[in-house]
Structures are given as structure tokens and as C-alpha cells.
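One chain given next:
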Amino acid sequence: MAFYFHSPLAYIVLFFFLLITGFNFYVGVTLINRVATEVTMVQAFFNTGFFWFTFILVFPLITMRLFSEEYKMGTIEPLMTVPVHDAQVVFAKFTSALAFYAILWAPSLLYFAIFEWQTHREAASAAGAYLGAYSMLLMMGMFYISIGCFTSSLTKNQIVSAIVSFVAIAMIFFMGWLTFFILNVSPFLQDLTAYLSPIHHMAEYSQGIFDSRPVVFYFSMTGFMLFLTFHALQRRRWSS
């Protein structure tokens, strides 16, 4: 965590992240004011193009330095000689990135509080919508940060790490849109894309509709990616 806040990158990311999410909230409020709709403010905020653009872009920025910087600066060797297990190193890197990710989203709670204070309207249909939206935000963040950890463990070049993680995350994200581009889609493919689609997951959870399948998917895939990161780190240890 200290590594994040001792570098200017964290503050640059935080500034532009809040700028874009604030604009996204403004767009949602404008839409609700102009169009008669049953969509709540929580749904409008978490299901727009601005939201997904910011969401996908932030992960390469906060994970590209996790291991790549250690490789580049030569500090990975002293780190590997301290009396900690490789799994502890991976988990510490992952949790620090996840904590910073949570800090990025924490101010968005103020948006809804201000909205309700100014408009005297509920921003969500029920408390479960808040819980669902932020739970899904956390679970998706866990998975995509674990992807960033893995790509960062493969190279000493931060830019390469960022590009590879961005491409991998974007491919997973757009897999949920396959049914819109392919005609005569089989029921199996429809179910598969719905199972993988973060858009579908967020649309349900931001309404307070809970489904255990995304929970199993995100937690299992996060564990799998951290497992790969652990072995990539061990492979580098024994090959050096």
C-alpha cells in the first residue's frame, strides 16, 4: 500500500478515475431527469459505457508494476530471500492492489448520498441493490486484478504487462457480447456468454438480484490466476 501512495501514479489514477466516474454519475442523473424511466440511479451508474470504460482501463494501471517493477529494479532477489513464502508475496501484492482498487470506488458512495440528500429520492430500489452492485464490483475487481498480477509476473516491462492484461481483460469482457454479433446462437452458447458476461452480472446485481453462479466463477477464477502467478514466480526463482 505504501508503494502505491509513495508514487505519483496513484494520485494521477485517482484524480482521473474520480473525474470520469463523476462525469458518469452526472450523465446518469441527466438521463433520469430527461427520460421517464424506472431505472434507478444505482442501475444507471453501474451500467453505462463510461462506467465500463473506466472499469476496464483501471486494472492495467494498478497492477502493471506489481512484479515488473521488482524485476526491473532488481529488488525481486532480496524479496525472495526474506523468510516469507512465495504464496505470501503473491497474496500481499494482490491484496494491496485490491485495497487500492476499493479506495478508488469508495468515494462513489458519496455520490448516492448527495443524490438522495438533494433530490429526496431513493437512489436504489432497496438496500440489496447497493450491496449487490458493490459486491459485484469487488468480485470482478478480484478476478481482473489477479489477471494483472499474473501478466506482471511474466515480464519486467511494465508497458508490456499493462497491454497484455488490458487485452486479456477486454477479451473476457467482450465475450459477453458474442450473442449480439453471431446469428443463430445455440442455447448453450447463450448460457455460456451470460455466465461469463460482466455486463449481465452487474445488470442483475445492481437490481438486488443475487445469483450464486457469478460468485463461484469469480472466486474460482481469481484463485486459479493467483495459482498461475505463484508458479510463474517460482519458475523465475529457480531459473535465476
